[in-house]
Write a structure and sequence with these properties.
Elements: E1 2-5, H1 13-19, H2 30-33, H3 35-41, H4 46-53, H5 72-79, E2 93-102, E3 108-118, E4 124-130, E5 133-139, E6 145-150, H6 156-166, E7 180-189, E8 192-201, E9 219-222, E10 229-234, E11 238-248, E12 251-261, E13 264-276, E14 298-299, H7 302-306, E15 309-311, H8 319-323, E16 328-336, E17 342-349, H9 353-363, E18 367-368, E19 372-373, E20 376-377, E21 380-388
Parallel strand pairs: 1-21, 14-21
Antiparallel strand pairs: 2-3, 2-13, 3-4, 4-5, 5-6, 7-8, 8-9, 9-10, 10-11, 11-12, 12-13, 15-18, 16-17, 16-21, 19-20
Amino acid sequence: MIAQVASLKTDSRSDARAKFGVGSGRLAQFHVSCYPVRIMRSQFVLALCFVAGCQGFGQTPVTPPPGQMKDPRAILAAAEPYYDFSDPALKPWHLKATYQLYDDQGKPTEQGTFEYWWASPKVYRHTWTRPGVTYTDWYTADGKHAYLSSGGGVSFFEYDLSSAFLSPLPDSSGLDPNKFRLDREDVKLGTAESPCVMVIPKMPQHGQLQPVPLGLFPTYCFDPNVPALRVRYSFGDLAEAFDSFVKVQGRLLPKEVLILEGNRQLLSAKVESVDGIAAADPALTPDPHATIPRTDKASISASVMAGGLVKQVAPFYPQNAKFAHISGTVVLGATIGRDGRVHALHVIEAPWPSLVASAMWAVSQWQYKPYLLNGEPVDVDTTINVIYTLGN
């Protein structure tokens, strides 16, 4: 996939990115000091709600607390047990949350429901429902996967609700020190200094990579006293805030999630109920009309996938890359789902860090025709090349 970006003067979002600090060295600090302020102003009263929601946390103390840990890997390791919702020791349970979507101006549009049923690490179900759209995934004890879909499909940010509620931390086993650098920095959330960990891919042409603004790559900010994730940043201008925590079988579950792009709301969600279920709950049995997809993935070239692109969002040209006269190609590895939407992205190569954030933000919203293998839609692994060219 090639997105040819010339001077990008026609991209209205580029000015917005500059306004909110994605780019120049002088404004880059906006990510550190101002994101938390916007989140607090969005009625995420983090400190008060956190204290109320995490009573009893002291039963499993962390020594030292995250705010005193200097090693970023130690901070992630301390938090992991509180977000392990795949532990076989858990009892079967069900989560129901409602969510609100917003348009390009941040005005409320459609409402939906996200539900999750869990009986074991192999047996679980996700369902998204909103007017005209339903999508359900079932995973069964024999290792099979079935799905049922109707309507126009679920957006990237709706899919992200599963991760936001159930697995918001990075997989530490995949953070190879030879491939990723972890930076730690304190950020003021409310009145407290919170430790944040940014996961930065090591790009060969940059060696150890120059300093980058916090939040440009996936960043995880924790409460300083207990290992609870408060804010998760990605793609430079995208943030998720977590609030009103409750304990679920010894794990931490945020009752409220807010997804922001800059200062604009994209999605807000609230947990309506959490309850126990039977291991043989009927909801865990796939619908007889559900499709059992092929288990293999197709590996398709960028040029072939380019022909199936049906929705493309143009990336913005970061101001700091412009000022530094940086151009070139960001190469992303992508998984395109059976529904034609982008389900996962990772960076393979890039000439400049902020170009990665720009490319990932844009590509995450692209949509393709479902790729058919012997007449059946399959997941696709591919690469996407986003080309940045400076104007004259």
